[in-house]
Amino acid sequence: MSVHSDKAVDTKQIKKALAKHKNKMKAYLSHCMHCSLCAESCFLFMAHDKDPRYMPSFKVINSVGSLYRKRGNVDRTTLEKIKKIVWKSCVLCTRCYCPVGVDVPDMIAFARGICRSQGVCPEFDETGAMESWL
Amino acid sequence: MIVGHRKALDEIAGMIIDHKKILIVGCGGCTSICLAGGQREVDGLDADLRAHFEEGGGHVDTDVFTIERQCNADFFADLDEMIPLYDAVLSMACGAGVQFVAERHPSVPVFPTLNTDFVGVDRDVGWYEENCRTCGDCVLGDTAGICPVTRCAKGLFNGPCGGTRAEGTCEVDPEVPCAWFEIHKRLKTQGRLSMITKVRPAREWVNQTRRTVIQEPYKERYTK
Amino acid sequence: MIEFIKGPMVWIAFGMFFAGLVFQGFRFFRLTRRKERRLIPAPPKKAGNKQTKKNVPVPTREGMWIQHLFWWVERKFAPLTRLAEKRIFPMRNSVAGTHPIVTGVTVIFHVFLFATPIFLLAHNELVASALGFSLPSLADSTTDMMTMVFLACAAFFLLRRIFVHRVRAISSVFDYFAWLITVVPFVTGFLAYHQFFDYDKMLTVHIILGEIMLILVPFTKLGHMIYFFLYRFFIGSEYSFGQGSRAW
Fold first, then answer.
1. Predicted ipTM?
2. CA-nearest residue of chain A to C171?
3. Residues C102-154: pLDDT tens digits?
């Protein structure tokens, strides 16, 4: 469920946003050594029985990484998937650690911003869902 | 979490009446969660303002944008570029966020759209209750987790005032349970009733001047 | 062709390596800005405010023993560690406390990755004949041992990437390629030195692979070697080494 579920996704707007921070984001994505040493720094990873889907690296690779891989040509379904990752699997507590120094919260906030620009954002009074947003 | 509620539409409209281009900025943090100032509420305010001004035969030029947090500079990159293009900003963050935006853009008027109420808990969706008044000197360990500052009408620290009604409610308001009655009950359940006779000295009221917190491991970094 | 590879191409590869690193470094540095430094007077000290180190890592099974070791060292050499923390280097129990084995292996891997080629006698001979000076060299037996240790560390990383589920979950083809292009120059150099197979051919392959690796470093994830310093030393964050005077 999203705020504007009937509007088509404005891929031009997304591409513009991706291009604006391309240097920094692509550098982050490139320098992520896929080492998974960030995992234990995320309390959600620890709380969910060390499920790899809660690793900060996993979250950014499958949100921001996914957006760049698809070059911004995403549909609402993909944005909903990304929404699940950057809002349900992350609370932006900014405690994530990376040995190389990749700024994970920056990337999560960036992905959230792109989702928001298309009206995809969490609704904290969503009913009917088994899990809450928090 | 910080809880607030939106001001009356008339009041908000009155703030921006002399300004042409308005940016309504939402916050993805506390005010989103308490359904006061998130992305959806921003759209709601946008629609309300347009309708309000159109009713009066006028027009308002508004744009919307939501950032993750208005209390941390790390989230301001995109917003900082946008604000100079507007005549005024309506912030849907808590008072802290409004001030932070205003501090970063001193030449643009930043107006609060919310009344920031308290630090509280979620009772249910849309229902929030105050629990903490951030006094800076927490005694919850002695009072079995019931805050005498918040829950006692008189803010008493050393037992009830003597005006507790027979039903265990406050003499000021019969709808409100007497905090010290509740504290007594709970301490008894926990087998710690001796805490109730502990006398606390007069409080140092520290919330009258602006407070700063620097966590211990960072003292070297920020203090001279 | 071979003369080109052994001659001008070496210069080109090194040139692209150094120029690329400098260029990327500057390009990235330009995205940052200096933070406003505003030191404030210390808030009044409240009694009993001693807090633990800010980076107490999440204890894992293998990490707990090194955690205890760190704490013991800290207590035993308290004045020294406090001084080091204040003046030299923040002695934080960071990821070393959570993943001591990986941290240890990666430190050895990276130190030997640089030290082996730089202090190799054969390389220094070539550098001396090209530039007129060179760095001091280690004995061949030493660099041989270093190469073997390096390859063992590299093997550890490959096995970790294949067999550890959470690392495999985020691994891509390029990760394996990056591993390969880093390791094969060492393997071929080792084989050439020990004259397994045809020396000339092995040496040529070694040179080509080394050149490819050097050229790729500034433009791929192998460039993390320079970004590590930018990210961890310059950008201020919870985990920065030192004060971190810059921000995005």
1. 0.84
2. A34
3. 888 999 999 999 999 999 999 999 999 988 988 999 999 999 999 999 999 99
In the beta sheet, which residues pair with residue B61?
A: B21
3-state secondary structure of B80: helix
- Same domain flag for B69 and B178: no
Which of C33, C35, C40, C92 best probes binding to B when mutated, by most B CB atoms within 10 angstroms? C40
By percentage, how much of chain C surpasses pLDDT 90? 43
For the segment C169-192, the average pLDDT, to the nearest whole number, is 94
Nearby residues of B31 by Cβ (< 8 Å), 6 or more positions away: B2, B4, B37, B38, B41, B92, B93, B94, B97, B114
CATH code of the domain containing B62: 3.40.50.2300
Series of mean pLDDT values for 10-residue runs along chain A (134 residues): 65 94 90 91 90 95 95 93 93 89 93 94 69 50
What's the full length of chain B, in residues? 224
Longest dimension (CA), chain B: 68
Sketch the domain layout of chain C as residue ranges: 56-98
A89 close to A122: Cβ distance less than 8 angstroms: no
* Among A27, A2, A22, A6, residue whose Cα is nearest residue A102: A27
Same-domain pairing of B6 and B85: yes
Asked if B38's CB is within 8 angstroms of A113's CB, the reply is no
Q: Are residues B159 and B115 in the same domain?
A: no
Quote the tokens at residue B102.
Answer: 């205003």
pLDDT of residue C4: 83
Q: Which of A4, A5, A125, A131 to mutate: most B Cβ within 10 Å?
A: A125
Could you tell me if residue B92 is inside a domain? Answer: yes
Whether residue B43 lies inside any domain: the answer is yes
Structural domain including B176 reads 133-197
Answer yes or no: do B41 and B86 share one domain.
yes
Residue among B12, B221, A58 nearest C40 (CA): B221
- Count up the domains in chain B and report the number: 2
Q: Is residue B212 part of a domain?
A: no
User: Are B99 and B25 members of one domain?
Assistant: yes
Annotate C97-137 with DSSP letters as a single string.
Answer: HH-HHHHHHHHHHHHHHHHHHHT-HHHHHHHHHHHS-----
Cβ within 8 Å, pair B212-C86: no
Instruction: Determine, for residues C235 and A35 on separate chains, whether the beta-carbon distance falls below 8 Å.
Output: no
Tokens 């293998």 -> residue: C62
Subunits adjacent to chain B (3 or more Cβ pairs under 8 Å): A, C
Tokens representing residue B178 in the block: 């007497």
pTM of the model: 0.86
Query: DSSP label at B33?
Result: H
Q: Which two tokens stand for residue C146?
A: 């270093």
- Residue B124 placed within a domain: no
Q: A109 CA to chain B: closest CA distance, Å?
A: 7
Q: Is there a contact between A121 and B68 if contact means CB atoms under 8 Å apart? A: no
- Residue B223: count other Cβ atoms within 10 Å of its Cβ: 13
pLDDT at A129: 47
